[in-house]
Amino acid sequence: MKTEDNLKSLEADALARDAADALASFRSEFHIPPHGDGEQVYLCGNSLGLQPRATRQALIDELDDWRDLAVEAHFRGKHPWMPYHNEVREHLAEVVGAQPAEVVAMNSLTVNLHLMMASFYRPTRERNAILIEKNPFPSDRYAIESQIRFHGFDPATALIELDADEPNGTISDAAIERAIGEHGARIALVLLPGVQYRTGQVFDLKAITQLAHAKGCVVGFDLAHSAGNVPVNLHDSGCDFAVWCSYKYLNSGPGAVAGCFVHERHARTDRPRFAGWWGHDQSTRFKMGPDFLPTPGADGWQLSNPPILALAPLRVSLEIFHRAGMSRLREKSIALTGYLEALIRMHLSDMIDIATPREPQRRGCQLSLRVKAGRDAGRALFDYLGERGIVGDWREPDTIRIAPTPLYNGHIDCLRLVQATRDWAVHAKS
Ligand SMILES: *Cc1c(COP(=O)(O)O)cnc(C)c1O
Question: Would you list the DSSP string of 87-156?
Fold first, then answer.
């Protein structure tokens, strides 16, 4: 049998797997973008999550409360604006494995990273370095280098970059241990991702935290590609702080309000911070006094009163995560990504390499694919898929990221990708 016919014969099996999926009904809670007469095969939740159907009404409700109640909506709205950020707290804490007082929804990711570094990167002459991975997301590097300069140090010496030491561009636990062991005494802050955005590699937050704390370093994590993708158990990891955005796996819309975690042990810290009135103790905030008294916990880092129109989609989305449950989502995710990986290894191994680690515990839902024939072929495949409504994303120089997300993707989506890739190969040869 030809590979194409072989792949056709797998459709019944993929559909049967989806029919048996206990989380399958969640797909109908999302708008799947149209393509032709049908729907896209959307495998890009790592970049921008799809819109929940309930989001539109939630926004309209806020506009109506503003129209009908104006200032009174702070207290009498359907979801009163004054305590609004509290409405997302429990579910946000659930998604990242934190205690409710350890999390707050505010600002955007890079802003939160700066606010956290203002408190948790306190360099001295002897200990001023930040340990990062060699190829972090550019915004993180810009933020980190600018903080180093802001304190009068030089990134050329104060930035320690952890190089990939595994064949596919991933970083071994041993390399992390070596770097912390070797440079620990001069590292002020270890700042690593939960999931690396290009390779999809998962880092062991607890192990890294223990190694770094043993050397007296502060530890923070960027969970942009972890939140809503893999369980992270932030509290138990023991890390000092974490930040993440909400428009990727958390499906809260472009530029959505981001998240921030501060470990309980810092709830009443006297570290310096950049303050604003919304971080002031709630019981006396409206006395409008001159002295800043921070609210204990992550709330104490808030600056401004929250953007209600931007928080409404987050509230809707987190409620969906609450119903689905991170552990059930993870279980499905492991199966779904494992299925995609098996299809690729079985039917595309002559043309595609997978950069993402093979072990399920070392990856989330994303697989990073490289076309063996090189960058131009990879780009041509990516464009071919796009024209057929199969949406992943492209990361220079040569990576196609494919993220089957357990809330709205099924096995059939994975099969469609593999079928189309095989068709492209046949097409390219003829
Ligand atoms: C997506 C992403 C960002 C984006 O930052 P914003 O402040 O939300 O624009 C930053 N860092 C990482 C690691 C990301 O994956």
Answer: HHHHHHHHHHT--GGGEEE-S-HHHHHHHHHHHH----SSS-EEEEESS--HHHHHHHHHHHHHTT--HH
